[in-house]
Amino acid sequence: MLGSMRFKATNILVWIILVLLIFGLAGFGISDMLRGGISNEIGSIGDQKITREQYANAMNAQLQRLSQRAGRQITIAEARQFGIDRAVLAELARRAALDAEAERLGIGADMATVQKRISMIPEFQGPDGTFNAQQARLVLQQSRMDEADLREDVGSEVKQNILAAAVASGITAPQGLLQTIFAWRNEQRGFTWVKLPANRFGEAPDAPDDATLQAWHDEHSADYTLPETREVTYALLDPAKLTADVDVPEDALRAEYERRAAQYDIPERRSLSRLAFASQADAEAAKAAIDAGETTLTALAAERGLEPSDIDLGERAETQLAASARGPVFGTDAPGVVGPVETDLGPALFEISAILAPQHTSFEDARAEIHEALATRDAVERATGIATEVEDLVAGGATVEEIAQETPFELATLEVPADGSGTGLATDTNFRQTALGAQEKVESDLTQTADKRYFVLRVDSIRPEAVQPLDEVRDRVLADWTAEQKRQSAHAAAQALADRISGGEAFSRAAISLGITPGDAGPVTRSQQVENLPAEAVSAVFTLDPNGVAVADDDTGSYVLQLRNVTSFDPGAPQAQAMMTQAQTQIDQSMTEDVMQAYVYALENAEDGLRVDMNAVDTVLSQMR
């Protein structure tokens, strides 16, 4: 009886606490969750919203483009590894920021302008260079976009262009600046040079005493200093290692194969060009002239001022053509011109430049690829679930050893130098930063490496930065000291040679007296490389007056150089004018982009600027396949 009363009293107390929590958390959106509502937004700026659907569609479009380029399906995990998810989000944010600002300023896009822009989209134009409704519908269908979305996107682009023109129009680099840059960059110089290698012209005392070596060691102590190093114990989970344990059902493999039917069962395609004519008689006459070898379809298009790209339809499957064109185009076994065919544009001739055989990948051939993709997906999902468990373990005070015992996380140790000179995981930016920022003897939070592996670490000990004593690095110190003495000796020999040449002795005679054959170089600009010469030597030449002599050094020896001639940049030369015009365009465009980038940054970081719910972003990505 007493136990029952205590149980009821406990229940009542629990319910009271739950009710108070519900009211207390209502302001944090918990009431929406209790009602079953989930916000469709992942971000906003001003009155503009970035929805889950927009982000998912943009990610899918980017994944499709990347997969086409790679020739295989790019997974969400791979896209996230290379930062595609962040790049897509940044582009949506940029558009939303400009749309919000355009709306605030009252900038609009009238329907006539939008329709005109749509009619100018190259993919929507027929062979005659005008808007083709059938072609436009086909492109939209292939892009999985409806007309309303297209009008909204184009309208947004129109408003953004108006805003961009107001913000960054008229930005141009001053002519004086451009000419100064070109005069500096394109000045050319010719010179004569020789090298005095340190191992040939350098000399060093045979046996430096301990005091000399100690002085060198003290002066260059940074070269013999070991960085702060942390001894780390960590538990690591690599999702890729979980794929071996994933059992993908056969029906799931076949279902995925069917879902990717367009990837594995590509019908016969033909590479086509199309040219329409005003009448059937004109089309027949053109076909007869082509058959007689008197002209070509490309030549006929050129007579109308059309480029080959204007009549190029690309690769088309039979189902992608109008019904009237399917028989003539796919009814022949060889390339050539067929027609006339009645089309929406009128009678037309089609030129088949290539016949692409159908490509069918059987389920058996595709099975391994599909299995890997599904196993990877399931392994990533399993790893995410395990990571959630580990977060709870860490919060409960579990050690990395206990985590490794209770989960598939693997236990290991590693040294992490503060200067980034480590190996393995110590080279991963996230792992190294976590290790260097962790408290000693305390488990870190669960974190991911740059390639999305999960880890928890503990710093067991910290070895502070320390200079290695001379006795431990004596051989290295001796080698460094000897090399420097030889470099200094070679430099002195080079300076003596330079003094002889500056005093009036011929360069070739002075060099040959030392057993060295001089070389000629140039004319070269400041940015050009010269074989067997370091950049420092070329730079030294551009500090000289005509016939002046300079000495330059690198780790292998010293160089003596004498300037022979200077060719100044002539801004009035025709070639120079073309170069400057091109550079002007590039610099102006770059400056405009910089201004727009700064403008968008200011919009996004204003008081009512960009807000992104990264949890919602992660949810969208986790639901994508």
Task: Write a brief structural summary.
The protein is built from 25 helices and 19 strands. By secondary structure, it is of the alpha+beta class.
Could you characterize what this model shows?
With 625 residues, this protein is α+β, with helices and mostly antiparallel strands. Helices cover 51% and strands 18% of the residues. It has 25 helices and 19 strands. A 4-stranded antiparallel β-sheet has the order 16-3-18-17. Helix 5 crosses helix 8. The radius of gyration is 36 Å and the shape is extended. It starts with a helix and ends with a helix.
Which features would summarize this protein structure in a list?
4-stranded antiparallel sheet; 625 residues; alpha+beta; 25 helices
What proportion of the residues form beta strands (DSSP E)?
Answer: 15-25%
Shape: extended
The structure class reads alpha+beta
How is the largest sheet built, in terms of strand order? 16-3-18-17
Share of helical residues: 40-55%
Low-confidence spans:
1-37
Mind summarizing the main beta sheet?
A: 4 strands, antiparallel
Q: Could you report the average pLDDT, rounded to the nearest whole number?
A: 83
Radius of gyration: 36 Å
Task: Give the terminus-to-terminus CA distance.
Answer: 56 Å
β-strand number: 19
Number of helices: 25
